Amino acid sequence: MRFSDKVAVVTGADSGIGRATATRLLAEGATVFAVDVHHTQPWPEPDAGRLHLLDLDVADPAAGERLDAHLRAAAGHVDVLANVAGILHIAPFLEVSREDWDRVLAVNLTGVFFLSQTVARLMVEKKTAGRIVNVSSVHAVVSEPNAAPYTATKGGLEAMTRTMASELAPHGITVNCVRPGATRTGMSEPIYTAQIVRSLLAKIPLGVIAPPEWVASAICYLASDEACYTTGACLDVDGGYAMDGSLPGTIYS
After folding, report:
1. What CATH number should be reported for the domain whose range is 7-237?
2. CA distances (Å), 116 to each of 70, 84, 98, 240, in order?
3. Domain Ketoreductase spans what residues (predicted)?
4. Residue 110, class by beta-carbon neighbours within 10 Å (0-12 exposed, 13-18 middle, 19+ buried)?
């Protein structure tokens, strides 16, 4: 029950890592504002009405103002923000349109910036030693062909995390990042063909593709008081994918 009496906001909460994170926070006592463009999956109602479903597009310039109004009306403060919402556009670099580029950046980077700004302002106003956790990707540091806008946003997100951490540290607010590897979510499943899965399992030292709950565990650690002395960090949750330099199937002698 690390989050008893805590108020948390989770974006991308209708499915995947966002859903797993919101579920874990609820299970550990938090009041959760679950944010997504549209909520399509049923939720069990926790005790005392601790779940608030908000239909918000994080790319909407008005999203921050609307979230702030909900938080002030229903809770009065906020302790945790988990920026999980993200989209992936698959196209060769030479064929990416400006529209596709702008949409991926609006959700994965611009939306994170301005929702974090909204939440951080409320934390500072209420003198809350809050936690902001951003969700990057192994592809911030490992190339992913045909996903240039996505990889650009994840690299930018990690750099932005460090700057946010520096600026918000005097207010007692920590800002950290989780860097997932291969994870089974609604976004990733369409590209996880049998061939891709075989290649991934050969590349990942621990030999498994993660369920979203494993990433949610890392997010909740960084969102908890257990991580009170960690800020500006990026935690790999990738089964060893990014660090491994071995050649699959090759034995050195």
Report:
1. 3.40.50.720
2. 15, 12, 25, 29
3. 6-181
4. middle
Whether 221 sits among the annotated catalytic residues: the reply is: no
The residues pairing with 176 across neighbouring beta strands, listed in sequence order, are: 133
Distance separating alpha carbons of residues 120 and 136, to the nearest angstrom: 19
Q: What is the pTM of this model?
A: 0.95
Contact 77, 125 (CB under 8 A): no
C-alpha 99/C-alpha 122 separation (Å) is 33
Record the tokens describing residue 235, joined without a space: 């935690």
35-70: string of b/e by CB count within 10 Å (b at 16+)?
A: bbbeeeeebeeeeeeebbebebbbbeeebbebbbee
Q: Mean pLDDT, consecutive 10-residue segments, the chain of 253 residues?
A: 96 97 96 95 80 96 97 97 97 97 98 98 98 97 95 98 98 98 89 90 94 98 98 98 84 70
- Residues contacting residue 43 through CB under 8 Å, at least 6 positions apart: 34, 51, 53
3-state secondary structure of 48: helix
Single out the catalytic residue among 150, 221, 229, 252: 150
Tokens at 131, concatenated: 């936690």
Taking the domains of the chain in order of start, what are their residue ranges?
7-237
Q: Phi, psi at residue 10, to the nearest 5°?
A: -125, 120
- The 10 Å Cβ neighbour count of residue 91 is 14
The 3-state DSSP class for residue 51 equals strand
Beta bridge partners of 9: 33, 81
